[in-house]
Amino acid sequence: MSRDARDDAQLEQLGREIVDCRRCPRLVAWRELVAREKRAAFADQEYWGRPIPGFGDPGARVMILGLAPAAHGANRTGRVFTGDRSGDFLFAALHRTGFANQPVSVHAGDGLRLCDVWITAAVRCAPPANKPTPAERDTCLPYALRELELLPDVRVIVCLGAFAWDAALRILAASGVAVPRPRPRFGHGAELALPGAPRLLGCFHPSQQNTFTGKLSAPMIDTVLARARAIAGLGPPAEGQGSTDLATCSPRIGPGS
Q1: Angle at CA 163, nearest 5°, toward 128 and 71?
Q2: What is the fold, at CATH topology level, of the domain defined by 5-236?
């Protein structure tokens, strides 16, 4: 489906709405407290301290859905999965599988560009103990639903962890998709194809706990991302080429664009 300037303008407007959101008092208080007190290693940096919009290629055929921003990662840098160990692992995999032009995501102006993928989160503010409440999840989910509506080329949603899998099911149900009950369970490599909806693909979350213990390895996440490419009809990246050909990418939307 072709896009025009109005589509991208709507995505950018949605991003601004997300950044200005103050709907969850507990999350607002926590994200701003972290931004004031900071971690010692980042004491000289100005924290973002606001909700995190999605970002990537507005023509994406793959959406990656995470849980929430990290307190000293995206809550500091202003870009999802940027500036923490989870992002280090994820973007290295995206580079190896042809979705990113570089294997690192350090800050919003670091030159990162994505092709055929949009990265977002179910909850947009860093939650205490990385655990949003059900009410906070439900308050935030309409943002992801609107993103999906503004990304009509998406064919597969890679769900990073059980929380994201459940959130994706809720998003699809809210969009009018008939989601079976009991709801299909999350698992690494799990797939769910429902009529009229992007296919869901499960992947263990690239948290330090999962990657340091070997629950999620580089070959495991690469296999999931390669499967996402196949489902989306993208085909494998060029042999021996980890990064994507940026000449084929649509303009980037989001922080650092």
Answers
A1: 30
A2: Uracil-DNA Glycosylase, subunit E (3.40.470)
Q: Encode the chain in three state secondary structure.
A: CCCCHHHHHHHHHHHHHHHCCCCCHHHHHHHHHHHHHCCHHHCCCCCCCCCCCCEECCCCCEEEEECCCCCCCHHHHCCCCCCCHHHHHHHHHHHHCCCECCCCCCCCCCCCCECCEEEEECCCCCCHHHCCCHHHHHHHHHHHHHHHHCCCCCCEEEEECHHHHHHHHHHHHHCCCCCCCCCCCCCCCCEECCCCCCEEEEECCCCHHHHHHCCCCHHHHHHHHHHHHHHCCCCCCCCCCCCCCHHHCCCCECCCC
The candidate with the shortest Cα–Cα distance to 78, out of 207, 255, 221, 253, is 255
Residues of the chain with pLDDT under 50: 1, 240-248, 250-251, 257
121 bridge partner residues: 66
How far from 138 is each of 1, 13, 40, 111, 131, CA to CA, in Å? 30, 21, 33, 33, 13
Q: Where are the domains of the chain?
A: 5-236
Instruction: Decide: pTM greater than 0.90.
Output: yes
Phi, psi for residue 38 in degrees, rounded to 5: 60, 165
pLDDT in tens, 178-227: 999 999 999 999 999 999 999 999 999 999 999 999 999 999 999 999 99
